Automatic annotation (TrEMBL):
Signal peptide: none annotated. It comes from Tripterygium wilfordii (Thunder God vine). Belongs to the MIP/aquaporin (TC 1.A.8) family. TIP (TC 1.A.8.10) subfamily. GO terms for molecular function: water channel activity. Keywords: Membrane, Repeat, Transmembrane, Transmembrane helix, Transport. One of its GO terms (cellular component) is membrane. The keyword Chloroplast does not apply. This is Putative tonoplast intrinsic protein. InterPro entries: Aquaporin-like, Aquaporin_transptr, MIP, MIP_CS. The lineage of its organism: Eukaryota, Viridiplantae, Streptophyta, Embryophyta, Tracheophyta. The chain crosses the membrane at residues 22-43, 55-76, 103-120, 141-159, 171-189. It is a multi-pass membrane protein. PANTHER family: AQUAPORIN TIP5-1-RELATED, AQUAPORIN-8.
Length: 255
């Protein structure tokens, strides 16, 4: 049974609908990384000492919020609008998507991030592509914890915003996801960079040729995303959970 099941899952992962999902993830992730990394490059171009200018933090937060909201919205009905390997990892861990599909998602997201950074590098005449870094006062372990907490908040919001039991949210779901991403950048960008997205950090590192503390932007986000998914699906809002006020199960009211 196991080989048959594995073969069936792989077959689903290369179906026409699945291929469209990978393309949607590629496009959304490309646009997100292009805007986020590009906004940082633009602020560095316009400011003499952008690292010390508080307005640079606001620019990064707004770019994250606007770009992520748009990227999630345009892909939500096709691929789910993950736009982030950490979100995909959490969905695979919770059984919402198969492992082969998750791996294809990862490939699409990573390739999109690298291509976006390459395009920025070429089109701006070899302008330096900024990478995510941690402040000298922090250790790699501390930065991983911080990135994990940020990604926990992001992925928990993704689960809540996309939960059909909450009713149709339309554009408000992606907007909520973008808002929490922007807030996270405001809270932590000066300390750990506020990446929350391994693909974005990886793409910038590949093109810039700088891999310092790259593990921070993988370990922290993946762990934070996993905890968020497990907590939401199994503790806070399980599929057959009783309503905290009425005591009626979600299944019982047909939500």
């Amino acid at each position: 049974m196991a080989p048959t099941s594995l073969s069936a899952r792989f077959g689903q992962s290369v179906s026409p609908d699945a291929l469209r999902s990978y393309l949607a993830e590629f496009i959304s992730t490309f646009l997100y990384v292009f805007c986020v990394v590009g906004s940082t490059m633009a602020s560095q171009k316009m400011m003499i000492n952008s690292a010390a200018d508080p307005s640079n933090l606001v620019i990064a937060a707004l770019a994250n919020a606007f770009a992520l909201s748009s990227a999630v919205y345009i892909a939500a009905n096709i691929s789910g609008g993950h736009v982030n390997p950490a979100v995909t990892f959490s969905m695979a861990l919770g059984g919402r998507i198969s492992v082969p599909t998750a791996l294809f998602y990862w490939f699409s997201q990573m390739l999109a991030a690298v291509m976006a950074c390459i395009l920025l590098r070429i089109s701006t005449v070899s302008t330096h592509v900024p990478t995510y870094t941690i402040t000298s006062e922090m250790t790699g372990f501390g930065a991983s914890i911080l990135e994990g907490v940020l990604t926990f908040a992001l992925v928990y919001t993704v689960y809540a915003a996309g939960d059909p039991r909450r009713g149709p949210l339309g554009a408000f779901g992606p907007l909520t996801i973008g808002f929490v991403a922007g807030a996270n950048v405001l809270a932590a960008a000066p300390f750990s960079g506020g990446s929350m997205n391994p693909a974005c950090a990886f793409g910038a590192a590949i093109v810039a040729g700088s891999f310092g503390n790259q593990a921070v932007y993988w370990v922290g986000p993946l762990v934070g995303a996993a905890v968020a998914g497990v907590l939401y699906d199994n503790v806070v809002f399980p599929s057959q959970a009783s309503d905290s006020i009425t005591g009626i199960s979600e299944g019982g009211v047909g939500v």
